[in-house]
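[User]
Protein folding is very new to me. Any chance you could explain this protein sequence and its structure tokens? I have pasted everything here:
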Amino acid sequence: MLHALLRALRPQRFWKTLLARGCASDGAAGGPEIQVRGLEGPDQGITEILMNRPRARNALGNIFVGELLDALARLREDRQVRVLIFRSGVKGVFCADADLKEREQMSEAEVVVFVQRLRGMMNEIAAFPAPTIAAVDGFALGGGLELALACDLRVAASSAVMGLIETTRGLLPGAGGTQRLPRCLGVALAKELIFTDRRLSGTQAQALGLVNHTVDQNEEGNAAYHRARALAQEILPQAPIAVRLGKVAIDRGMEVDIASGMAIEGMCYAQNIPTQDRLEGMAAFREKRPPKFVGE
């Protein structure tokens, strides 16, 4: 089972560009709703997914979900991606829930299929092999918060607004919120937030442990993105295979009892032993120099 979970660690052919579908898009100037950018220079290894659907406030519609799934499918095969940041190109909003206007035009059967697809997208984000960071610079409501919860780490502007607000619309969270929020905050608090439709500021979210860091918003409206990028820069120097295996050990271990979790940790550790990076790490420690990890 573990080998299936780790298959993304095998060497893959690198890819350089992503051509996202833009037909009938609500993206800025008719462009794609999802844009991918690999950073260069000292930030090489950080890749950004930019959500850019301004007229709908980055609502999760069919095209948006399709483009994001396409991006994830390509990025997960790229070993150059060491950290993946989700950010918004729309000022004041991270992702303002699912596209309910679009959903109103669907039959009940189509709604079921779409929500299953949406849930699958969140699972793909959660299972992404490299660390993921959500940069929440504005509203993250309903499906938008579920997207942030699917990421490994979350950074928010203090003025951001977050909440699973589905019950006020006659719904319940359907893209992982009822499962990921209690795992993040505990059962009782998650129930309170979902039952009451309560919205949290970034500052309140950090106090509860929903986000890792909060920052005061700047004039450009991208303070959380800059903090997320700084956090990604802290991850970059670490051994990428060890980081990915650490993610597997934590995620899978949290789903089982501690004895089984220890076994999972042992399998991940054994997987890391033959890597060149482990030998490089030991040599660098012995020679008192910074290690140069290559992800092999």
